[in-house]
C-alpha cells in the first residue's frame, strides 16, 4: 500500500489549485516528506520536542562537524517511509566563506523508483537576526 498525505506545493503549503488532493504516487509522497523532514527543527513540535534536526545546535554554528551532519541527514533520509536505501550516497559540501551547506543524494524507493535531491543550496544559512 502506498502511503498518502495531502498534496503540498513547493513552499510546503497545501496545494489547493484543484481542491484538496492526496499524493498520487510514492515518489511524490517521499519527495514531499523529505522536504518536510529537512525543514523540521529540533524542538519545534510541542508534543515531542525530541523530534527534528538540531539546526541551531549542530548546523548553524561557527565550526560544524560535517561528518556528524552527514550522519544526521542520512538518518533522516533512511528513516523516511518509502525509502529503501541510497542509490547515490548522500554528500555534504560546506562552503565556509558563504556559510552554506550543500546536500545531494539519490534515494531508492520501495517501488524501485528514485528520488534525487540535488538542490544547491538545500540548507541555507540562517537569516540575520535568527
Question: What would you say about this model in short?
Answer:
This protein is an alpha+beta fold and 130 residues long. It has three helices and three strands.
Count of distinct strands: 3
Helix fraction bin: 10-25%
Mean pLDDT: 87
Instruction: Report strand order across the widest sheet.
Output: 1-2-3
Major β-sheet profile: 3 strands, antiparallel
Please tag this protein with its features.
Nuclear Transport Factor 2, Chain: A; 21% strand; globular; 130 residues; 3-stranded antiparallel β-sheet; alpha+beta; single chain
List the helices and strands and how they pair.
Blueprint: H1 26-38, H2 55-59, H3 66-78, E1 83-95, E2 100-109, E3 114-117
Antiparallel strand pairs: 1-2, 2-3
Tell me about this structure:
With 130 residues, the chain is α+β, with helices and mostly antiparallel strands. It has a single domain (26-117), classed as Nuclear Transport Factor 2, Chain: A (Roll), CATH 3.10.450. It contains 3 helices and 3 strands, in the order H-H-H-E-E-E. The chain has a 3-stranded antiparallel β-sheet, covered by helices on one side. The chain is globular and about 45 Å long.
Amino acid at each position: 500500500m502506498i502511503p498518502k498525505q495531502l498534496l503540498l506545493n513547493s513552499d510546503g503549503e497545501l496545494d489547493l489549485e484543484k481542491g484538496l488532493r492526496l499524493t498520487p504516487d510514492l515518489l511524490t509522497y517521499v519527495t514531499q516528506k523529505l522536504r518536510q523532514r529537512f525543514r523540521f527543527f529540533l524542538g519545534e513540535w510541542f508534543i515531542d520536542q525530541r523530534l527534528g534536526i538540531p539546526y541551531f545546535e549542530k548546523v548553524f554554528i561557527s565550526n560544524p562537524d560535517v561528518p556528524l551532519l552527514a550522519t544526521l541527514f542520512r538518518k533522516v533520509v533512511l528513516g523516511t517511509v518509502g525509502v529503501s536505501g541510497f542509490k547515490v550516497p548522500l554528500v555534504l559540501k560546506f562552503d565556509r566563506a558563504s556559510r552554506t551547506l550543500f546536500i545531494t543524494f539519490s534515494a531508492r524507493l520501495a517501488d524501485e523508483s528514485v528520488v534525487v535531491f540535488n538542490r544547491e543550496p538545500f540548507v541555507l544559512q540562517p537569516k540575520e537576526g535568527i
